Amino acid sequence: MKKKKFDLRSDIVEVKAETVDNGGETTAFVDNRQIKNQKSNIHMTLAVEATVRNEYKAWCAKNNLQMSEAFLKAFDLLKLYYKN
How far is CA 36 from CA 24, 39, 42, in A? Predict the structure, then answer.
């Protein structure tokens, strides 16, 4: 007998957005101690065709931008474009 998959459909679990005003700092609590999150970089993997990757690298080099910097600027523009 196959084990049933864990299911978190929206009709089962209610998710509510919370807004926290703490001066722009994100914090976590561990063992009743408040810990300030420090910004750290992570690696992100995207699957694209080789031609797209080469074009992106060349465009970034031509415009004197690091690839991560160009990605973050593009993401900011997408957020503005799709702002609700």
Answer: 11, 10, 18
